[in-house]
Amino acid sequence: MATAIYLEHYLDSIENLPCELQRNFTLMRDLDNRTEEKKGEIDKLAEEYIANVKNLVSEQRVEHLQKIQNAYSKCKEFSDDKVQLAMQTYEMVDKHIRRLDADLARFENELKEKLELSSFESADGRGLKKGDVKGLKDKRGSRGRARKGSDEDSPRKKKMKNSPDLSDALLPMQPSDVLDMPVDPNEPTYCLCHQVSYGEMIGCDNPDCPIEWFHFACVDLATKPKGKWFCPRCTQDRKKK
After folding, report:
1. pTM of the entire structure?
2. By the 8 A CB rule, do 12 and 4 touch?
3. Phi and psi of 117, rounded to 5°?
4. How far apart are CA 120 and CA 112, in angstroms?
5. CA dist., res. 84 & res. 215, Å (int)
6. Distance between CA atoms of residues 164 and 83, nearest Å
């Protein structure tokens, strides 16, 4: 019954996932097509410039080069948008994987508790059927002794003394522990915080930047800035120069 409930809830949570993934993939494909169109436009502008550069005055050269630069900037903007979409898609799937891990851990703990409880109850039942007279006499003793004996022989104490899975009983895995676990120990880390990629990120325009990618929150960004952007470390290095 519990398995069916967990499965039903999980299937409900991923009901819209295929549509969301399809939408993101369609947007990424559209960005690819628009980028290819811009690349063709850049090639055409470059050929025109090379063919006519001798006949162009200084202002016309600057204007033509500006058109090429604008087309390159548009291509980069399309590429950045595609990277953001890819990261959002990754986070979308990763969120459901983490939830599944948490549900599996919680379900496993519930099964362990039920199995241990049933085994203790069956053991107590067999002991009563044998009619342990000595045990009954001990229970008729003084109230202090009876209380002490009942505490020591309770299922909780027995589980601590006799259970082979003592560490599992004392330290059960919580769903929050699963959510805090890294997805992949081999996954590369980024940003000043040295964490894996998540949420919105921005790339440093310094080609020699050792970190390259940064989380918006770690560099105090709420939206994507226009033009070139340099991380705090590269900004300090540029000021020193």
Report:
1. 0.43
2. no
3. -65, -45
4. 12
5. 11
6. 50
